[in-house]
Design brief:
Blueprint (H helix, E strand, L loop, with lengths): L2 H4 L12 E7 L3 H14 L5 E8 L5 H8 L4 E5 L5 H10 L5 E6 L2 E5 L2 H10 L3 E9 L5 E2 L2 E2 L4 H10 L7 H6 L10 E3 L1 E2 L3 E5 H7 L11 H11 L3 E12 L9 H19 L3 H27 L5
Parallel strand pairs: 1-2, 1-4, 2-3, 6-12
Antiparallel strand pairs: 4-11, 5-12, 6-7, 6-11, 8-10, 9-12
Helix pairs in contact: 2-3, 9-10, 10-11
């Protein structure tokens, strides 16, 4: 795995756990507390290792974990190198054959991730899987999606915020599919993503060139190129209280989102046609950045 494999695996367990749950945290102490408490309520601790990778929080998150969740391993990352880097650090620090990377703003609602692991064990071609995610109000969060074509990308990019039910967004977010049954999909959200370690390592882990956003799309893209399946398994359900970390610096995160989209476009279209389209795509992303920024400020969400 290159750089990832060279990092030391710290604090080994006496017995190998089947699943490592890796929470990524940055200044979201209360969300992290709720997430860990909801996981503790599920039980089956003997089969799981739980890690928190903290990206230099200044809100007392580290102390909270140490005092209230002594069973959790805390990896204190002094510098915030982004979500992808933190996921890779967590993966390198444990040895479980299955990894689940999680945002700190999730809450376990129904089912145990080990049920997803059992399904993955029965389906050896599956490299990644995502649970059903709900919004804070209980509505479905469209967390499994397609890789959009260029026309769908453009339509969703400019109409998605204004008209969420437009046909481009519906296609991209798979809104026409039933989200109450398992299905093979193209990518699943990194807010809660289960990974087979062997597939994760074969793909080289998360690309640390992404600071935040699209690293999940990119990993699923590379897994599928290697022949691994990506699946949606709704028997396990979490609530995802979206955007708690990214809202702390919304303009920076908006910039990172668009930078990540450009990076993925260049990876997905490496040939002459892709190179010819880089300048128009860059112009479109800049226009979208300004549009979304203006809409957020009109709605009182900018900073």
């Amino acid at each position: 795995m290159g750089e990832i494999a060279r990092r030391a695996r710290g604090g080994g367990e006496k017995a190998l756990k089947k699943l490592a749950l890796i929470f990524i945290n940055y200044n979201t102490r209360e969300d992290l507390r709720r997430a860990l408490a909801s996981l503790r309520e599920l039980g089956r601790e003997e089969e799981c290792e739980v890690l928190v990778v903290d990206n230099g929080s200044r809100d007392g998150s580290q102390r909270m974990v140490e005092e209230e969740f002594p069973e959790v391993r805390l990896l204190d990352n002094p510098a915030n190198g982004g979500y992808a880097q933190a996921c890779n650090l967590g993966a390198a620090a444990c040895e479980a054959p299955f990894l689940m990377v999680l945002n700190s703003d999730v809450e376990f609602h129904r089912g145990h991730p080990l049920e997803m692991v059992r399904w993955m064990e029965e389906n050896p071609g599956a490299g990644a899987a995502g649970p059903r995610l709900l919004n804070s109000d209980g509505s479905i969060q469209f967390s499994c999606r397609n890789f959009p074509s260029l026309p769908v990308s453009i339509g969703h990019a400019f109409l998605g915020d204004l008209f969420p039910n437009n046909p481009f967004t519906r296609s991209y977010q798979m809104k026409g599919c039933r989200h109450d049954r398992p299905m093979r999909v193209e990518w699943v959200s990194g807010a809660a993503m289960l990974l087979r370690r062997s597939a994760f390592e074969e793909a080289g882990g998360f690309d640390e060139g992404y600071f935040m956003y699209v690293e999940d799309v990119d990993l699923c893209w590379r897994l599928r190129l290697l022949g691994w399946g990506v699946h949606y398994l709704p028997e396990v359900e979490l609530v995802h209280h979206v955007g708690r970390s990214s809202s702390q610096n919304s303009v920076r995160m908006l910039y990172e989102h668009h930078r990540s989209m450009l990076r993925f476009f260049r990876r997905r279209h490496p040939g002459p046609a892709g190179r010819a389209l880089v300048i128009p795509v860059l112009g479109g992303l800049a226009a979208r950045f300004l549009l979304v920024l203006a809409l957020r400020r009109l709605r009182g969400g900018g900073s």
